[in-house]
Amino acid sequence: MQQRIASVDTADGTELAYATIGSGTRPVLYVSGWLSHLQLGWEQPAERAFYESLAEGCRLIRYDRAGCGLSEASDRPPSMEGELAQLTAIAEVLGTEQFDMIGVSLGAPVAVAWAALNPDRVRRLVLYGGWADGSRIAEPDVRDHILGLVESHWGLGSDVLTDIFAPDSDAATRKETGRYQRASSSATTARALLALSYELDVTAFLREVQAPTLVVHREHDRAAPVEQAEVLASGIHDSRLVVLPGRSHLPYAGDAQAVVAVIRRFLGLRAARRGGRILTPRQTEVAALVGAGLTNREIAARLGIEERSAEGHVERIRMRLGFHSRTQIAAWYATHAGDSGAEVRYFHA
Fold it and tell me: What CATH architecture applies to the domain 4-267?
């Protein structure tokens, strides 16, 4: 799949970037968590595979909130009012038709409030890793410590939060995720949005949500306690709660396919195809060497082939997996193959 990026202005003139993935007729609007970057996220193998799996048979629309990724910064500080205005601008791109909505992490309480205020627009609602009352997701001293860390040392702050968000990922993936967060926003914006996460309370909106709702949460989520998922599910009349095993807060970390499967089933979509792209044994071997940091010349020497042949193998791997760089191949191999050396199947929608 390829994503198509466009932009739209909010009511106050802030330009937001949004991306459309898939060619189905049913729209699914995805409200992301704390930070996002449409382009860099698409270049992360695990994140891209997650979006592609969700988008099979539908049209997935994602956007960068103001001050993040490809979107313009706003002169106004982050607030629920601002979040709803941005979501409204993206929804208007879809015209008057109903759509399904997925709210993830910070996007979950925002999606709750928007669905409650716009009951005629939301067909089905999915809330992953969310909460009803942000003040309940961490103790005050912990919140203050993390906010101070992000503000004073964005590099260390992003690494600490990555360890909380994706403890099931390997060290290389966590390091790349930290870099991704720093590239997605400034320290000032990151801190302000994190503070907003702790401030939002949508408890009063829960009873106003009319759309059938699925609440998905990992049992040992380290960023948002599962008790808040239970509050969401108990407060929304037509809802069901699914608790999955795992510790990671990011939906594409850990067992992402389990998250995809339960969401697609709820939305009435067919199970995503798995194993759509397979590397040959030789390509798997080359991918492992790319993951080990070898150049084409070193790969050729290791395998006893011409350097041009090694270059051709790398190019075919890149094209088969839909990647743009060796770094992506290395990250993909670390995530999907490890050190097994077995035939690798790429989970592609």
Answer: 3-Layer(aba) Sandwich (3.40)
